[in-house]
Automatic annotation (TrEMBL):
GO annotation (BP), single: IMP metabolic process
Catalytic activity: IMP + L-aspartate + GTP = N(6)-(1,2-dicarboxyethyl)-AMP + GDP + phosphate + 2 H(+)
Cofactor: Mg(2+)
InterPro entries cross-referenced by the UniProt entry: Adenylosuccin_syn_GTP-bd, Adenylosuccin_syn_Lys_AS, Adenylosuccinate_synth_dom1, Adenylosuccinate_synth_dom2, Adenylosuccinate_synth_dom3, Adenylosuccinate_synthetase, P-loop_NTPase
Organism this protein belongs to: Jannaschia donghaensis
Entry's localization field: Cytoplasm
Name of the protein this chain belongs to: Adenylosuccinate synthetase
The protein's role, per its UniProt record: Plays an important role in the de novo pathway of purine nucleotide biosynthesis. Catalyzes the first committed step in the biosynthesis of AMP from IMP.
Binding residues for substrate: 339-345
Pathway: Purine metabolism; AMP biosynthesis via de novo pathway; AMP from IMP: step 1/2
EC number, UniProt record: 6.3.4.4
Length: 470
């Protein structure tokens, strides 16, 4: 078993064992598309940096081979593009499995659901020929809703914030909706089914929101208008409402493969991210359990998606950020623009300190290393291996915001490679320097590479460990 061979998460792998890449378990021998084995396995996929790690391609490959695909956190702040048989699908709320026939897609209670966005996304996909019905889509009855007032509040706060205190949110109401959930005044999917309950819930929420809005100089909410909007949209959501925890329990007992599809990245986690410059949900793998209602023991493999360098959208600390020609080059070669907001992403060298940290907090069993080809042609590559904080060397990012801001990256340099790695499908096709870079990344983050992606094309992947069959 891979974990036993490589001492997963217990320390750096022995360099001696890694001297000869082609001899490594399964390298080159296992095709990326191989479908074999019936082992039951539930896989969680999480972004291990600040989001935009290239989850789309990996999640699509895994979802094709899963029975059920479940979202467990976030909302329509996520965004990814799937290209299947030349057709482009844009998803931000629905699980990736929705575009593949014969799968069950699930939106768990950990997600904040904008019903109007849901309707729009469903209509858009139906327009492209995707079949969506209550047999293929289920939404947790206990999922909280994002209301139009949440988006308004999100945007008003951002506008009112002074430079340096803005979060740089997607403006989609994610934070305010989670605030209402925790404040026990959210309107949940199940509340849409009964007019009297809905009125009580709306009144409870507005008692809070109207006071808040007065303070921000905003008009009070049009209560009757909001109620009318909710009653109108209710059937479009209730059609898919289900006790998701129960459905997943039955799937698990029947030995079906469940893929838990994370959005954003672990450094945006509300607890373990670069607070307050984070999203408002738990992003790390443990949330797959609480955000859907399965037990933690049902998770067999956690796959962390890791980009071969670092990017971030929005504000907040970024120790290895590059404000020079190298950063510009990473952005251009990597097409680093946000899918949801179109914003230019900030770029920097690979930060092994942060990824080691996120692999630990998510219990990552293996990583999918993406966009290695973007590093082609750099004469020298740098990897952040520690931070200098006022003369002291740290091997983790401290939580205090002022300390984070003062952390200076300590870099290790490695020779780059001039050959193209784009489209490589085996280790033998990679230059020696690229292999050394990957091996060094594994050592530093204390976690092995399960998949190596060398282009957006599905076939351009080197498979080391299949998460569903490990
Ligand atoms: P919110 O999730 O809209 O509240 O935004 C909070 C922070 O998370 C901002 O820095 C956003 O740019 C970031 N963020 C939210 N969703 C994503 C995503 O899917 N990819 C990358 N960053 C995201």
């Amino acid at each position: 078993m891979f974990a036993a061979t490589y001492g997963l998460n217990v320390g750096p792998a022995s360099p001696a064992r890694r001297a000869s890449p082609p001899a490594r378990g399964g390298v080159g021998g296992r095709g990326f598309n191989r479908i074999e084995g019936v082992d039951m396995a539930n896989v969680v996929v999480v972004g291990a940096q600040w989001g935009d790690e290239g989850k789309g391609k990996i999640v699509d490959w895994l979802s094709e081979r899963a029975d059920t695909i479940a979202r467990f956190q976030g909302g329509h702040n996520a965004g990814h593009t799937l290209v299947i048989d030349g057709k482009v699908y844009k998803l931000s709320l629905l699980p990736s499995g929705i575009v593949r026939g014969g799968k069950l897609s699930v939106i768990g209670n950990g997600v904040v659901l904008d019903p109007w966005h849901l309707k729009k996304e469903i209509e858009q996909l139906r327009g492209q020929g995707v079949e969506i019905s209550p047999k293929t889509l289920m939404i947790a009855e206990n999922a909280p809703l994002i209301l139009p007032i949440h988006g308004e509040l999100d945007r008003a706060r951002e506008e009112a914030s002074a430079q340096g205190t803005k979060i740089g949110t997607t403006g989609r109401g994610i934070g305010p909706a989670y605030e209402d959930k925790v404040g026990r005044r959210a309107i949940r999917v199940a509340d849409l089914a009964d007019a009297a309950t809905l009125e009580t819930r709306v009144d409870r929420a507005l008692a809070h929101h109207d006071a808040l809005r007065r303070g921000l100089g905003m008009d009070p909410v049009d209560r009757d208008g909001l109620l009318a909007q909710l009653k109108e949209i209710a059937p479009s959501v209730l059609e898919y409402a289900a006790p998701v925890w129960k459905v997943l329990d039955a799937k698990r007992r029947a030995g079906k493969r469940i893929l838990f599809e994370g959005a954003q990245g672990a450094l945006l986690d509300i607890d373990f991210g670069t607070y307050p410059f984070v999203t408002s949900s738990n992003v790390i793998a443990g949330q797959a359990a609480t955000g859907t209602g399965i037990g933690p023991g049902a998770i067999d493999f956690v796959l962390g998606i890791v980009k071969a360098y670092t990017t971030r959208v929005g504000e907040g600390p970024f120790p290895a950020e590059l404000d020079d020609a190298d950063g510009q080059r990473l952005g251009e070669r990597g097409h680093e623009f946000g899918t949801v907001t179109g914003r230019k992403r900030r770029c920097g060298w690979f930060d092994a300190v942060l990824v080691r940290q996120t692999c630990a907090t998510s219990g990552v069993n293996g990583i999918a290393l993406t966009k290695l080809d973007v590093l082609d042609g750099f004469e020298t590559l740098k990897i952040c291996v520690g931070y200098d904080l006022d003369g002291e060397r740290l091997d983790h990012l401290p939580f205090a915001a002022d300390a984070q801001a003062r952390c200076a990256p300590i870099y290790e340099e490695m020779p780059g490679w001039s050959q193209s790695t784009e489209g490589a499908r085996s280790w033998a096709e990679l230059p020696a320097e690229a292999i050394k870079y990957v091996r060094r990344v594994e050592e530093l983050i204390q976690c092995p590479v399960a998949l190596l992606s060398t282009s957006p094309e599905r076939e351009d992947t080197i498979l080391v460990t299949d998460p569903f069959e490990d």
